[in-house]
């Protein structure tokens, strides 16, 4: 009910912060990101006074601190029926994100994971404007860094994000982000919220 016509990004962000505390979170682990419409095309955008209109995508980048530890997740919603172009782009990003999760294993070079994810996005004509992921712990951004300059190697027990995205300036952005533990016998995905696009009719 909070995601409705006319609500502003800041209003929805404030509601989210309240919910995080109601459900046991001690604080948000970073400045939460709620972006509507073309604002979602800014990878590091800040919530503002933009109001939700029919046909707008909604990007939620959310993290909560619990007992001193941070978390991080990005999911997408859409008010009204999305265009075929948006749905196709969403499915593409989701596919890349699923493949990216499979690249995560002990001994993998963080830089190599980043390179492979960016190469997959390039096949769709997209350039990733940020790193594929980062470590999360007591701080929201820790080592390992999954970027082109990283010298980190993934190890069992590391907690990292995998967050590919595409950003079409002035139109829309799509990012899907999970938090996971690198495991010797497979990784444990900590983000349990469904990755289907949440369409609000």
How would you characterize the overall build of this protein?
With 201 residues, the protein is α+β, with helices and mostly antiparallel strands. 24% of the residues lie in helices and 25% in strands. The chain has helices spanning 9-22, 84-103, 110-123; strands at 27-28, 33-36, 57-62, 64-65, 73-79, 133-135, 142-146, 159-162, 165-168, 172-175, 178-181, 188-189, 198-200. The protein has a four-stranded mixed beta sheet with strand order 2-3-5-13. A three-stranded antiparallel beta sheet has the order 8-11-12. Helix 2 (84-103) runs antiparallel to helix 3 (110-123). 39% of the residues are buried. The model has no long low-confidence stretch (mean pLDDT 96).
Topology:
Elements: H1 9-22, E1 27-28, E2 33-36, E3 57-62, E4 64-65, E5 73-79, H2 84-103, H3 110-123, E6 133-135, E7 142-146, E8 159-162, E9 165-168, E10 172-175, E11 178-181, E12 188-189, E13 198-200
Parallel strand pairs: 5-13
Antiparallel strand pairs: 1-4, 2-3, 3-5, 6-7, 8-11, 9-10, 11-12
Helix pairs in contact: 2-3
Low-confidence stretches: none
Helix content: 10-25%
Shape designation: globular
Radius of gyration: 17 Å
- The sequence of SSEs as H and E is HEEEEEHHEEEEEEEE
Look at the structure and give the mean pLDDT: 96
Please report which band the strand proportion falls in: under 5%, 5-15%, 15-25%, 25-35%, 35-45% or over 45%: 15-25%
Alpha-beta classification:
alpha+beta
Let me know the largest β-sheet: 4 strands, mixed
Strand order of the largest sheet: 2-3-5-13
**SS field, number of helical segments:** 3
- For the terminal residues, how far apart are their CA atoms? 12 Å
> Count of DSSP E strands?
13
């Amino acid at each position: 009910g909070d995601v409705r016509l006319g609500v502003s990004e800041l209003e929805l962000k404030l509601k989210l912060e309240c919910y995080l505390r109601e459900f046991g979170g001690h604080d948000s682990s970073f400045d939460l990101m709620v972006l509507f419409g073309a604002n979602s095309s800014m990878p590091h955008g800040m919530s503002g006074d933009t109001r939700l209109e029919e046909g707008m995508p909604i990007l939620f980048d959310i993290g909560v601190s619990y007992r001193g530890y941070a978390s991080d997740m990005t999911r997408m919603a859409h008010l009204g029926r999305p265009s075929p172009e948006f749905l196709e782009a969403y499915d593409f990003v989701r596919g890349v994100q699923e493949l990216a999760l499979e690249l995560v294993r002990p001994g993998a070079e963080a830089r190599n994971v980043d390179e492979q994810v960016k190469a997959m996005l390039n096949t769709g004509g997209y350039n990733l404007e940020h790193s594929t992921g980062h470590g999360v712990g007591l701080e929201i951004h820790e080592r390992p860094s999954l970027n082109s300059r990283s010298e980190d190697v993934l190890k069992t027990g590391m907690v990292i994000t995998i967050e590919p995205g595409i950003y079409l300036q002035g139109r829309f952005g799509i990012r899907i982000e999970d938090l996971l533990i690198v495991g010797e016998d497979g990784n444990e995905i900590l983000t349990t919220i469904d990755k289907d696009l949440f369409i609000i009719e």
